[in-house]
Amino acid sequence: MPLKNKVAIVTGGNTGIGKAIVLELAKHGVNIVIDYVTHPEATDALEQKVAALGDKCIGIDADVSKVPDLEKLIGAAVAKFGRLDIFVNNAGIETRTSVLDTTEDQYDAVMNINLKSAFFATQLAAKQMISQGDGGRIINITSVHEDWPMPGNTAYCLSKGGMRMLTRTAGVELAPHNILIVGVGPGAIETPINTSTMDDPAKLKKLDAAIPLGRMAKPEEIATVVSFLAGDGASYMTATSVIVDGGLMQSSPGL
Ligand code: BGC
Question: What class of enzyme is it (predicted)?
Fold first, then answer.
């Protein structure tokens, strides 16, 4: 499907990888709905940037971990743009806490924002797409940690592992409706989630050394993969993940 005039929802779209995805999809002529719980001003600024690209973007006050708010997001896309073609489950948080010191509140926050939101967004987006009758795309932004342990970030890894299986299982379930579901697993990306690493030269040096390409990625380097997956060129990809990590998961200490 050519992306021009398609309608997308990108959760967590006003910062980090989500913001880059919004701008990349807008470049291709997609109309976009994003949510915000905090930073309405960042959403306003982004709406204006997207409008300057000739496309439309609206921000909706919605907490993606709540099902009625997800319904509100989809309702807004349909009310404003008439349909929904692409849903990007991008919103995510991490606590950087181990299995020994993660509190119940931290666990709930990570699982609800990362995994519960992706599950119910998939359910609701799929129902809307099925009612339209011509398929759709759901793209789950996971992490290399959908399949690779990050000691000291256990709940996060759990949530991303869950998204990996959501992608696979729902991808199989929804294939008869031509709803294609693919996960994108970024490695280390220059976004606010990684500020503590980027601000610490010793930590950053260690991280860069572990990445075969020798550097963190820009959010735009993930966004271009997402726009490919949303478009015609990815018409035979579903129930799988694309890892975009500069080789990080395969790096070897040189045995
Ligand atoms: C995590 C980061 C981590 C990166 C690479 C991301 O999913 O959010 O904290 O640096 O993976 O390990």
Answer: oxidoreductase
